[in-house]
Write a structure and sequence with these properties.
A two-stranded antiparallel sheet has the order 1-2. Helix content is about 65%, strand content about 5%. Strand 1 and strand 2 form a beta hairpin. The chain has 5 helices and 2 strands, in the order H-E-E-H-H-H-H. The chain has one domain. The protein is mainly alpha-helical.
Length: about 150
């Protein structure tokens, strides 16, 4: 069902785009901590994806950083291009759930760094904004009726 974009829905869509961009920016902060050569170091997802090959992080952590990059990119493009359907909100809800589960399961509690903790909080905010977007389509717009 196609519904025209109202001011509220447009604002929610723009907020979703901004939050997903912040998620992408958080990938450059220290995201994962781990032991390398007897020292505890923090790595960004950019380091794990495009960094040197001498660091001995497990391949599962490197693949997790790909997941952490793909989720906000899909969410951003869905929120920026979907103006008439509810797909952006469904992707926002599902992406937030997958992102939180991925951070908690793949990184774990002892390896969380600043970037991953802020990402958890931002995913919760994206979840609530997406739920607001779902409900704004269900509840009729009463601005025209007086």
């Amino acid at each position: 069902m196609v519904i025209e974009e109202t001011k509220t829905i447009k604002r929610i869509r723009i907020i979703q785009c901004i939050l997903f961009l912040f998620e992408i920016i958080l990938l450059t902060l220290p995201y994962i901590g781990g032991m390398v050569d007897g020292k505890y170091r923090y790595f960004t997802c950019v380091d794990l994806l495009f960094g040197n090959t001498e660091n001995q992080m497990p391949i599962a952590i490197r693949l997790a950083s790909v997941v952490f990059l793909i989720i906000p990119i899909i969410g951003f493009f869905a929120a920026s291009f979907d103006k008439t359907r509810n797909i952006k909100n469904i992707i926002g809800i599902a992406g937030s759930g997958i992102g939180v589960c991925a951070i908690v399961i793949m990184i774990g509690g002892e390896a969380l760094a600043l970037g991953s903790m802020l990402s958890l909080l931002l995913y919760l905010l994206i979840f609530f904004v997406s739920m607001l977007g779902v409900f704004s389509r269900i509840i009729p717009n009463n601005t025209n009726s007086k």
